[in-house]
Structures
1.
Amino acid sequence: MLKNGRQTSPGSVTENAPQTFTGNRALMLDEPLIFEIAGPKTTGVDLMDVPQVETRLGGLERNREIGLPGLAEPEVVRHYTRLSRMNYAIDMGIFPLGSCTMKHNPRLNEKLARLPGFADIHPLQPAQSVQGALELIDELATWLKKLCGMPEVSMSPKAGAHGELCGMLAIRAAHEARGEARKVVLVPESAHGTNPATAAFCGYEVDAIPATPEGRVDLAALKAKLGPDVAGVMITNPNTCGLFEPELAEISEAVHQAGGYVYCDGANFNAIVGKVRPGDLGIDAMHINLHKTFSTPHGGGGPGSGPVVFSEALAPYAPLPFVRKAGDMLELVEEEQARTGSHSDSFGRMVAFHGQMGMFVRALSYMKSHGADGLRQVAEDAVLNANYILRRLEGELTAPFAASGPCMHEALFSDEWLEDTGITTLDLAKAMIDEGYHPMTMYFPLVVHGAMLIEPTETESKAGLDRFIETILALAGAAKAGDVERFKEAPFYAPLRRLDETAAARKPILTWTEPDLAEAAE
Amino acid sequence: MSVYYTEDHEWVSVEGDTGIVGITDYAQKQLGDVVFVELPDVGKVLDQGAEAAVVESVKAASEVYAPVSGEVMEANEALQDDPAIVNASPEENGWFVKLSLSDKSQLDELMDQAAYKAFVKTL
């Protein structure tokens, strides 16, 4: 109860509450498709009548309506605002999924990204008119190189998997430059799922390295697979079991001795930034998800950014473009004629322009507002939070690697504790939705049965973590007490219940067709 | 009619030169709720160990491999509309394909029911 007498908990639904005439429930509104709201005569802008003119398109002119919905501006704003209210986002609560937009996006980043000198420029502007933007890219590149202890960085990749592709293309270019056509890339079971996909996309055969019972890369198994046909390994560190790979330096040495290169999936760099320099572990290429480690907003389709750092050995093969000092000015080197010095054997370019400018501004804002010591604390707090969750839940849930020591940024549980309850990981995730939480990552990594992977990040306070933990403990208690109904039918309170996600992915309906009015009338 | 099993948890029930292929009850339990099944076209020739179908559950997508070589005579279209049949009746109504076997000697490499049961116990 607040001091003015208002209840602090939501009102309960009484059993005999009337059905509303609209189907809406107070602020929970049912939302039709935008096409269903649209009217044929409605438009957001008044356009002048276009005079009839003779076309010279030779019969190629459009002969029917273009089929876009017609709405007034407030209708459009309301439609998308209503839809957004059904969504769960980091701005509403903890996002334990550990994916793209999982940590707070500081509003300072947004303020700086909106400065007209960054927001209102165009990639085709002359370089001398965008010196500030180029300087920002260069400064961000310097920070990334310093934090990673590596001499080169390519800023252009647009997201994590794109960065993986960038790194693997550089590795392939390096082998080709030596006249070697190596065919195999080794990928541990504890790597991100995109790693084998990237290797295959680059034309390599993928060979899996098993995990040890402690959830780490099996070094002996890896060494046994190294040979003249192995182009390199792709290792995620910290890995998807939420564990640091302490033998990575030794792995790198073995791979280098066999003539291969080490790609590191740096998506989890947020756990070690400021604590470990990947370059010191012998890594040759690593992508950094600016949207994960450095808080730029992503997820739900927003722009990502995945710069790739390179070792001395791979630096000559880094892609174009890159920012270079030319006298007092900075220039964006985009053409192949620039293949001198640092990018002498560049494998080419991956994007039309230079990368995600808006994300660069946000990432540098995050770095400079935290400072180097602040970034180190980001990693420390993220790891502390994950370990707090691991230790508070390991008694009730099953934590297969709890004995492997502290976890890094993620706490991993299996579904062993649910055995014989009739409740699955999926059911638990759905019940979390009813409790107002976004579910954690489930059924991944595959090395753990019915995996539940929780990544709290440094964003959450202890009080917030406690509320989350109490909820999980309450659900665990209900599951063990045999309250199966609560889980099997969940979510009860979401705007939509259990959706056929597979059918949506396998047989997506992407076009709207006007309902047949005659058929509808029948 | 005799039924043979693979280490990848497929079964094939053989009568004459025809083999009906599906996944075992153990496989079904491991997968969890099956939500999608992709079947091969009739007439497709499958080598032993080739991908015969894809089964997708709430947890993962997995391949169903042909336990023996043969030509697809029929695919169980009922699974397209109701993939949950695989969970409800994995070793009867939830069959995937009917093959015309091209090399029955391959059956010798497979396990019989007793051997498969013993194999599952080791997992």
Note: Chain A has two domains: 110-363, 376-493.
2.
Amino acid sequence: MGLLALGTALEWPEAKKKADQVRQWGIEQLLANWRRAKGKERDALLWGDEVEYLVVALDDAAKKSRLSLAQAEILKSLARDEALWKSGTSKGNENGEHDGEEPPHFHPEFGRFMLEATPGQPWGIGFKDLLKVESNMKWRREVASAHMAPNEVPITLTTFPRLGTKDDYIQPYYPPSGPALRSQFVPDEIANPHIRFPTLAANIRSRRGRKVELNVPVFHDINTPRPFKDPTVDYDLHNWPEDDDVRNGAAKEDHVYMDAMAFGMGSCCLQITFQAKNMTEGRRLYDQLSPLGPILLALTAATPIYKGFLVDTDVRWNQIGNAVDDRTREELGEAPLKNDRWRIPKSRYASNSTYISQDPRLRKEYFDPDLVVDEDIKKRLMDGGMDDLLATHFAHLFIRDPLVIFSEDLEELDLNKGDHFENLQSTNWQHMRFKPPPPDKDDIGWRVEFRSMEIQITDFENAAFSIFIVLITRAILSFDLNFYIPIQRTTENMETAHARNAIHDRKFWFRKDPFSRRIPRSAQQSTNGSTFSSTTSSAVNTPPPSPPLGPVDSEFDLMTISDIVNGCADGTFPGLIPLVESYLNSVNVDVETRCFLASYLDLIRKRADGTLWTGARWIREFVAKHPSYKQDSVVSEEITYDLVKAVEEMTIKEGKHGSVGWELLRGKKTK
Amino acid sequence: MKLILSSSNLMHGGRQSVIRQPLTQKSNVELINSLRSNFLAWQQIESANTNGNGHSNGSRPPASSWTHQGEDALYIPAIDFSQPGLAEERDQYDITVKLFYLPGIPASRRCAHTREAIDLVLKELHVKSIDLLIVSFPGILFDADDDSEEEDNEASNGEPDDFDSTVQTWRVLESLHEQGMIAQLGVAEFGSERLARFLPHTKVKPSVDQINLKDCCVVPKSLILYAKQEQIQLLTHNDCNDILPVGTTRELLGPSEKGAGILASSPDADDGIKGDVEPQWVVKYTAVVKDRGVVENKGYFASADVGTCVKDRS
């Protein structure tokens, strides 16, 4: 999560004064880096996954599970081992299973109860590499586990069901209501103590002018009170000015109310980053993967509980968006614009809002006409030589203020660094991220990050979804697929993906025909007058389709997730899985790999068609069937403990032979 | 008369290769669809050019306008080999070619057929060599469910390829390998028994045995072990065995709405080129950018004889 430099972090009133300077310097750094790296060519496909864990401490005697705030100790212990591995005095694993693999890397996250783990080295497209992903994920879990207390486990639930309740859900316990978060539910100690994190939280709150506000609709079960008034909200606190928020109506009826960054940024995600062969390919992948964001969000849905209540949404996304929403009332449109520069329709954490590929298939109708852009920054970028599309993208990201500024960094502008650029770039948490090569590392190319997926309970699932996305990128490039839809439809899809059971109950906008029109080569030459190059990446070489284009609205339609993943019965959209399989049929895949890949694709196919449950559905059913559940939406400490135990068992047995979780992993009790 | 059918690069506009069907189904749909759609695209361009309005007026342009009568064969459609083949340098690619010898065609023709097929691929891709040539012999069917090997199944699928001609064909491939034209050789659908019988007769061992992926998780253990021991890689495919039957060929090239309007509807009819049609071989080529896993070029060539000059099979 971003850079962890040390220094003197400015509080918001000071930081605000320096915002223009940081933006300007960031743009100069971007331009310098873009000039240096725009011609980078022929980088290999390298990719990496990021898996995030909650660290949970189990008290079997009391049947209680709590979040452990032991991140720092665990990371310190892990770092010691990593140093030993590097010096060669200790082997990463005893049984030789991971010979030749670099030991995994572990990173701090916002939540002090979280860990992030990445493979020790990036993956390639070699099919043998794909086979290693799942075992490497399992290895990461083992390594992490080995550095925890005996009663602690790393689990991959997106959120801890009882974060922010009245009970002692953290260990060690701290009472809520500290100066940084000013939350009535969680203490400041819930966040990573590195100065960056409390500053980030405090400056978001400060810039916003009140606490962040998360209202998630409660799931109304038969005994849930109507109207539901979140019983955990305290209206009589007077520690901080922000305690007035709830008296001013921050907590909505029929909603579970939360008031701190930890409720969002404390969620675990599954993120995949790809290295493209050059900037052109990176921009193309950014655009083509963008419409898939909401689809994969709905497919991976795993977040049905907040603060001890079943909610009526299945995914984490908007909660994170609200948890880091630093927009003022003016920017939100709740007050007339006086001091701020513009109304901003989305949080810094939201679906992406513009396309960046110089692709003849990208029609102007696909853009959002109301995209907010800093015109001065766009002009500076274009004066510096950047093209309109890319300049627009960055000038859109740079409408935001930098949130964490270290005064030491403002002394001199270093064009060989990217720190000021990253300050804005890494606090724009859109569902796609386009990453320029780091200025100080020649061996890293242009990259694209796919950020919408929810973490899954088992490593089998996490490997399946990671590899699925990798294979989709290969199919996109090989078949020259076109998934463009107007970007506002993707924004809409992102909202749709939140609904309970959206995966089966809702439809999503999707492009009907992903194929480009086929034009024989010599015909291309004669109609185009230029020599055709069969390069797969350079969209500028593809001639415009000769017949006039139809209306944009006829290009896409509402489809079910199953149609999108498995193909429409009427043959309009072929389906992501059949596309991936056609790709696999065109390359040499050995029998063992194909068998693995088949099991991954099968999981996704069956998630989409309903044969297998989503994590969200499984958790809901687990709660509903629990003997102590009272049909009142309350997920008690006891249920949470049993859920965590079940999840822990599932990560090991993976639903085999009718063990817990077979409904979302196997579909049959006997398999 | 010889016909050379070509699909050109089917990756762009690749609808014809994406088939919504159970994974287990083997198929020649990709071949047929890609040929048909290439013919159609050429006809449309031709009629658009003639009409000048960018739209076809519905009538089929004369075959001579979009095919090419070469010295040796009629090219359907006309191929312009002066077009560049691959975007990047040769060493960036893995080029795999699979050659299907068709049932009922005498093994004695395979030497010439192999040269002919490989030459077309080399010309199309503008390369001097290929990395892997997999050959598919007619009548050999691998059945993963049946650990007793493939022999039993052959009777029901026409005559099995006789062993001597398989070995003779391999000699041809070995010589191409020696000339540096092919880096590695492979076979398709060989079970462990057949491999064991075959290997002692080879100078250049097959590096690959490609088997149908019907259910790749149940490959017989004997084959896995034997392949490992002999350092033969087991790869998967989903091509069907009789990839271009006579009937399909006539339908593809015939005068019906879905046909190309080249051949007559039956050997004696007057609505196209008269005579019997006999598909000779099919070749599939794939160029994959190695370290990016991108399939840049994939296509088929097929050859058929037509007319009264169809060679005697004896």
Note: Chain B has eight helices and ten strands.
3.
Amino acid sequence: MLLGTLLSASAVAETAGADSALNLRRGATDISGQVYDLHMLMFAICVVIAIVVFGAMFISMFLHRKSRGVKPANFHESVKVEIAWTVIPFLILVFMAVPAARTLIAMEDTTEPDLTVLVTGSQWKWHYKYMDTNVDYYSLLATQREQIENKFSKGENYLLEVDRPLVIPTGQKVRFLITSDDVIHSWWVPDFAVKKDANPGFINEAWTKVNEPGVYRGQCAELCGKDHGFMPIVVIAKEPAEYDAWLNEQEEIARREKEEEQRLLAMSMSKEELMSVGERVYNSTCASCHQPNGEGLPGAFPALKGSKMVLEDIEGHIDIILHGKSGTAMQAFGNMLSLKEVAAVVTYERNAWGNDTGDVIQPKDVNAVATGE
Amino acid sequence: MSKANDVISPDSAAPEHDDHHDHHDHIPKGITRWLFTTNHKDIGTLYLWFAFIMFLVGGAMAMVIRAELFQPGLQIVEPDFFNQMTTVHGLIMVFGAVMPAFTGLANWLVPMMIGAPDMALPRMNNWSFWILPFAFLILLSSLFMEGGGPNFGWTFYAPLSTTYSGDSTALFVFSVHIMGISSIMGAINVIVTIFNMRAPGMTWMKMPLFVWTWLITAFLLIAVMPVLAGAVTMVLTDKFFGTSFFDAAGGGDPVMFQHIFWFFGHPEVYIMILPAFGIISHIVPTFSRKPLFGYASMVYATASIALLSFIVWAHHMFTTGMPLFAEMFFMFATMLISVPTGVKVFNWVATMWRGALTFEVPMLFALAFIVLFTIGGLSGLMLAITPVDFQYHDTYFVVAHFHYVLVTGAIFSIMAAVYYWLPKWTGKMFDITLAKWHFWCSLISVNVLFFPMHFVGLAGMPRRIPDYSLQFADFNQWISLGGFAFGLSQLIFLALLIKACRKQGEPVSDQVWEGAHGLEWEIPSPAPYHTFETPPVVK
């Protein structure tokens, strides 16, 4: 029965092709193709070994049953046979090791990249920074909360969609520098055969060279806390010309955002606007730990509702959002949120869920804390 | 193997000798019998029941996990509680079910197999069992603390288990310490017993294989449990006392945690499978009516596996960013392990070859073990290949692999052992109809449960996630159904064991099974409370 399962599995795997629900993907790079071939070679060898071993076993179970009236033999060792089944497996291993080593050496060669992207994991999102440009951004899960809670029907790319995908050019060697701001994450895109841990305080390297334009999806592969299952990766590979146009556009947007930020410092926003922006920022950034009702998770994440810091200490409140609190899960959001967004979320937290302080925080107040004035 | 046939004056045949306290089969009554017992058979029974209860508790947690994963979306539990379930399920199954079950078997069988009256250190034996329930009470009670129990996986990688964990981490650390102390005491007891208390004539190369594999296992335990104790202690001080062993900001290294953990963790894997190899090496010859093929090479293969287990740990860490040289070394070393493991499987098949096979329940479990453990071994060989491991690592392919070697490997071997020796322990044949139902239900459901995990893993489903994308939905439904069926099947086993303990069933002969050989089959059934007070002589 099991043998049959194995055989049918191999048959299905052969016919189902690259995007099978049963097998590894061939992927989008030369390396991922090599890895796929290696996987199929290993699988074939294992199936052959299984057929030989289980075959001998089943023949014995059929032919050498006591109910057939057989008399048991009494042999219990044979030096020749035992040497044979030690040496032959060893030779098979050598045969496997050669292509495996060759592929591994190619995978670990991160030299001479055309482009480098710094990938930083944090609970529970990815940050991409294009080295030698001013472009950097966070990439968050884009699936609606309601889909996860089964209130809306689930979309095609449920849990595998993000707000801002990573964009890379095709045909160029892209090097990833991978690290983390908090716990260990692992950046995995199956179609590239790239899976590398993001270790806090250390930088790992990986690379890929994508052949075909397309959208490639992956997930965090190392348990990183509560929302480990909700930090997907989406990579869009574009033709180099399209990629260059995209990058220029992003640089322009980054420049304009900075100017907008400066302009905001001079003016005041209304409480209504701050509250509505604040609610959006809170629900997308803060609510996964502190909960939508501000009550936190006792013992793990503190409540903001009725919190002493939120009710009294404005400067401390802004500071902990900008810089985080070391030794706890509270991370620094200064790089992720704009001055306006921090101002909004502080205002929201100080006026929501019965925290009726009436405080209104402006971007310039946040800037004052950020620059230490 | 069957060289222990010619026994002169086994204790049962010569009941009259100079024994002043004459406590022959004077069995204490009531709860104090179990609390204060220093009898290896009583302690073996305690260990086995404790392991079975923990198996059911850990299994209940697996049911929670499979219920949540029955459909995409979050239905039953919150992600944080889901993580607590995967963590505590792993800890309980490893430290609460598999390891105590093997220790229980060692307690019952090692003295009877080597012709010793009891374990060498009976009071320590009592202690090493009785601290265990407290360890698991502490661990389980932490689930009810504010902030919940441990939620960082049974591998407790730093800094998730240090800076980012809840306060219950202290309880987790304390309970792992107690489990470790218990295991070390148990291991010392096995080693001292085997070294000093073998019957005259029981030379090293006449020892039954269960004794050999447990002896080697005990050395592995003593070597690595202190390493685990060091790891949890560093987690404790990093979290509560401001040290930075695993924190780069203070000069530490989170990857170093993984090196330390897996230096314990990989030998630990063999701690959970070597005694299984021993058990299968008893059962297959009995029901093949033919001596074990390659006894000496079995011993050498076990020792080789144990030695190799110390130089392969980093194959759990290929994605952590090791240098190329280290990746190569650990890949080749890991591949080498398949050689001695293959020798064992070939020897079992050669033992069956041209035997006279019958298929009693222990043999059914042993045959299932050989096939299913080999499947787990072959996927292990695939996982050893570093470039492909980058794709398999931390997916359900790995989950499938280690459940094939641990559930259909270690746990099936424990069930085989219980069915094989239970009639000797109780003196009555167990309910064969129930046992066959238990076997076939378990065999079918366990494969529905774990086989499709290979497919979802290859298709890209990461492990330890409470929710998944839609492409994995169909297989996960099958997996969950298989899981519920496998869980329910164990209730058949529970019913059977209760009947057996009430001494229901047909009385059995001393040898119990037609082809069984060894000292334990020459004492009466049920085994008297005290055996071999005068050592037998083995020729």
Note: Residues 1-23 of chain B have pLDDT under 50 and may be disordered.
4.
Amino acid sequence: MNDRTLEVRNLNVTIRTDRREVRPVNDVSLDVLAGSIVGIVGESGCGKSMTARAVMGLLPYSGKVDGGTVRLCGREITALPEKERRKLRGSEISMIFQEPMTSLNPVIKVGKQVEETIRLHTECSREEAKEKTLAMFREVEIPEAETRYHCYPHQLSGGLRQRVMIAMAMVCKPKLLIADEPTTALDVTVEAQILNLLEHLRDAGTSVLIISHNLGVIARVCDYVYVMYAGRIVEQAATEVLFGRPTHPYTRGLFRSVNSLREGSATLETIPGVVPNLFRLPAGCSFSLRCGQCGANCEKNMPELLETEPDHRVRCFLTEKEDAE
Amino acid sequence: MRKNLTQRLLQAVIVLAGVTLLIFVMLRIVPGNPIETMMGEHADAATVARMTAELGLDQPLYIQFFRYISSAVRGDFGTSYSLGKPVSQLMGSAFVNTLILAVFAALFAWIVGIACGICSAMKKNRLPDRLFMGFSLLGISLPVFMAAMFLQYIFAFQLKWVPISGTDSWAGFILPAIALGWNSAGQVAQMTRTTLLETLQEDYIDTARAKGRGPLGVLIHHAFRNAMLPVLTMMTVQFSGLLSGAVITETVFSINGIGRLMVQAISGRDIPLLQGTALLATTVVILGSLLADSLYSVLDPRIRKEG
Amino acid sequence: MLRTKQKRTEQAADLRLQSQIGEEERFGDLMRRMARENKTAVISFFVIILMVLAAALAPLLTPYEENGMDLLHRLSAPSTEHLLGTDEGGRDVLTRLLFGARVSLLIGVVPALLSLILGAVLGAIAGYRGGIADAVIMRIADVMLAFPSMLLAMVIMYALGGGILNVFLTLTLVNWANVARVVRAQTLKLRSSEFVEAAQIIGVSRNRIMRRHILPNCLPTLLVLFTLNIPASILTESSLSFLGLGIQPPNASWGLMINTGRQYLYNTPWLCFAPGAAIMLTMLAFNFLGNGLLDVLDPRMQKQ
């Protein structure tokens, strides 16, 4: 029995726009161990959503995976024909999205939308499907499940809608749940409830991959974290390690801006500059343009993702030097 | 919803009353006594006066109007000057023909239009899309009378597949329905394509795909119904467009419908008949838009619960 | 057709207001952008210019006279002498087509302009004054819109009688309600916009606000409506003429040419199809141009 639910190796994604090509996901490798919650963190546009979509097989029409493998419980899935991929979606891997407001079909009752997943993947009667749906509604703590079953999305609050989304994703007991910014659109109190729910699901045996730009969310639920910048993983470690000893200048920058908020310092610390345009990446390290400690080598070459201590990898020349010393 | 419907009904009644008044007034400002026109130059003054009194045309306009309304409500639209029969009777048989024609035309427009629209959207910017959209543009820009004559010339005259005119058999309705529906089909196709492409960008389409729906399932179960909502509002417009076109189509193909009756009424300077047909056609349009509105609220739960 | 477009025009006007592009981008820039992005619209524009020129220069372009009967050469097929053949009176079809263009284009433009003015003024009053004026104007517009346009035109033409002036009047009466509705909707939004409120606060008079602030901001929308009203008018007139209710002989509009040519449809189809093709070309050109304008004015399209 393989204890890795998801195993991504050297994944590349290219998107073709008007004769130009960009690579929003570049040489990404990540693992999600069975029964764990793993986070991907980064600014918007860093490729974290695109990674999730590539794993799901839901890239936009102009995008494609070129190179790398994705293994689900040991089984290679990127090379599978579309029909087989489709069978996996909803039953083995599920995904929930950022906007519970717009992610549910406005003209179909939410109960029916959850039922749809069941009926797509299992042979069962209408009554059985409805029963399973109601059971799932109770499991994700939707009060008055029977009444909600007959509601339309616009009649539910944002939190309830996200619970419906989770119910929809979880109803076939998938091995992996991908949550793309699951709480960004929600109130803080609702956010806490949804995160509790995700932990509860993890304990029930589903591995979770959370994508978020919110370090608080990541710190709260994740066992292991990947930090992405401009399509590449720049640092990866167990949550305590990463939050205890952030090493990459970018990760440190992220933490500094959050901490300056928390400690109420007079000025908000920010990372100077903006996320680089993927069309115009620097020749060397992608972060070199915004890095305070950028050296000559950084501008010319891309550093490797190397271990600085057991199970803590960083993509930076500065840490390499430290090792050498 | 119920309150909403009552409101709409009330509004429809007001508009209908306005329409009646408008037609009535417009037809009364025609110069000359309609009786004289009807009876020709040789009528003597006494007969004209007697007929005028008999038909109540010597009364003040508002009395004439209320008389007309009160009898129209009871289904009596007066007697046709030129054909000598009750207008309601003439309209009854004509209405059936127009209805058959319009329903066939609408069916043609909707089936062909939606099918083309879907194909175009699925093959966006590729050959089928360009082909279908070129066709629909042609449909939109082709006046009904041109479509009618063109079809008549090719399929009835040159190829002799269907009768040139008349409605002795069902085959007689095929060309007129296509000619009449052609225009609408083009509009429906373009609208379907646009709204479908917009709908396919929605987040819930991603959700459906993430559930394991294939492209066709996504289209049918998730995109189609949402995309059809705006297309449906177009139905109102098309109802009135179809009736406008029916006048032409019925003339070209010699179908005894409401439109042809109207043309006859105009050439015979037959006020009761013109008044009745115009009123009937407009009523149908108003009812049609009422129907489309209600259908919309049935299909869109967001509207259903609000009203 | 027109009313579907009208819906989009409304939406486009709406979005423009929200994004305030109207204020930053000058009209000339808009046109230049259209020229860059929408080749079909540009081609259509030149087709229209060509047609106008051809109509204006008709007497110079053809050796025949508009009503030059030649009974020896009735209903002759297209030849080098008569490129599109001759009609039942032996008149050159191409010549009549060129002269017909004068009538048909005039019938497109004049009522479109008149209904635009009438509709804009009434719509602005309804939207800006509100109250009774609004209720009365809009109820009348509702009644007009409830009519299928062709039937309304038929009834009005019946009441007024044939002739070109009456055609102008009829088409104006048929089309103004659409314009009024769009302009009213836009005025309502403008009325609550900040710059109009600011003008009210500093005491600018109502009429001045209407003239200086509201109507100018409706101009791009009006331009689109104008462009789309032209083919609609031409279509309605040709349908009326087709039924014998529009322009009266010996004037020739394209619709009337089709009407007379219909009797000879089976033997000399070009009598019908030549003016029919002219009508289609005109409608296509104006519709493309109108769509092009609409796309430029619709900020949603710009992002794509």
Note: The longest strand of chain A covers residues 4-17.
